[in-house]
Design goal:
Strands 1, 4, 5, 6, 8, 9, 11, 14, 15, 18 and 20 form an 11-stranded mixed beta sheet that branches. This protein is mostly beta strands. The chain contains 5 helices and 21 strands. The protein has helices at about 10-15, 25-30, 140-145, 260-265, 290-295; strands at about 5, 30-40, 45, 55, 60-80, 85, 85-90, 95, 100-105, 120-125, 130-140, 160-165, 170, 170-180, 215-220, 225, 235-240, 245, 255-260, 280, 310-315. The two termini are about 20 Å apart.
């Protein structure tokens, strides 16, 4: 694919568009804005909270109730194959430091416990140059992963995407309701939303839609996190479970990045669950239901390497 050359943009555009970044004219001339566009898909169908889908090896009929994920360490790949970090816009809501939240649910249909707002883009700046690919990590960096979500700035203040300070955040949360599973799904607080930094993050125990639902939940996060004391933050995790994604043939202007829910569960039978384990995959190393999920994300599991991630792909955007 022919590399894409962006024109440098003016200081006025930069300073008004990138929150918290004030650049000199010389710096502005050397940088360019970038917006990465993502789309939740289920195979070739757009993701929707009002649709049902046949998923997994048994083609189990399922409806989604949640679809969110954290990305970090985003970078564009230049014509020489070098990764050039994206400096994220600090909007106080969807992006913080080098972490961005994507939210594909919209509180319609079976996603009644979600939020009306969605987020399908990541915004920032990069040095002016020719770019033909992108790379990023699904997950929260270790230095932010074990903070207290009740005190953290948005978007790291969502307790439904957090286990505890030992386990850290749920890097990816996909909840599916099915009619064939005898297992209960976890439920997020009904009133939780996205709050700007410094705003209230009040949560309630009103579980609303989904209480007692059966299905398959996917909560990706680190496990085996070690700490020197009960009240101390971890110093390492045996299983980081962060997915490093590289899309080397992507036009940042004309392409979208697809996040394919069907590909995520393609190796799993959603009508069954390993005995004595939570419904779906909670990232536990002893849960065989996680093997297919991890491999679809490109993550090795129980010493077995992944053949390569299949969840993310680039597609030309419809004009």
């Amino acid at each position: 694919m022919k590399p894409v050359s962006f024109a440098a943009i003016s200081l006025l555009t930069i300073t008004s568009w990138i929150g918290g970044l004030l650049l000199s004219p010389s710096q502005a001339a050397e940088t360019q804005a970038v917006t990465l566009n993502f789309e939740g898909m289920v195979g070739n169908q757009p993701f929707s909270c009002t649709e049902s889908y046949q998923l997994g090896t048994a083609e189990t009929m399922a409806v989604p109730t949640d679809f969110r994920l954290y990305l970090s360490d985003l970078a564009l790949i230049d014509a020489r194959g070098n990764a050039v970090p994206i400096t994220l816009e600090q909007d106080g809501k969807w992006q913080y430091e080098n972490v961005a939240l994507l939210d594909f649910e919209d509180r319609t249909g079976t996603c009644a416990n979600g939020t009306p707002e969605t987020r399908t883009e990541v915004m920032g700046i990069v040095p002016a140059g020719d770019y033909q690919g992108v790379q990023f990590t699904v997950g929260v960096p270790f230095d932010l992963n074990h903070d207290d979500a009740t005190l953290a700035p948005s978007p790291l203040n969502l307790t439904s995407l957090w286990w505890n300070w030992r386990g850290g955040y749920k890097f990816l949360r996909v909840d599916l309701e099915t009619r064939h599973m005898n297992a209960e799904l976890p439920v997020q607080p009904k009133t939780e939303g996205h709050f700007e930094q410094g705003s209230s993050t009040t949560h309630t125990s009103d579980i609303g839609h989904g209480a007692g639902a059966t299905g398959f939940a996917i909560h990706l996060g680190s496990t085996g996190c070690q700490a020197e004391g009960e009240n101390l933050q971890p110093t390492s995790c045996v299983n980081p479970n962060r997915a490093d994604i590289v899309l080397s043939d992507l036009n940042p202007i004309s392409d979208i990045i697809v996040v394919d829910l069907a590909a995520l569960v393609q190796f799993n039978n959603l009508s069954t669950n390993m005995p004595n384990t939570p419904a779906g995959c909670m990232s536990a190393p002893e849960d065989a239901d996680c093997m297919g999920i991890m491999h679809s994300l490109g993550i090795s599991f129980n010493g077995e390497p992944s053949p390569g991630q299949t969840v993310f792909r680039s597609e030309r955007r419809n004009e």
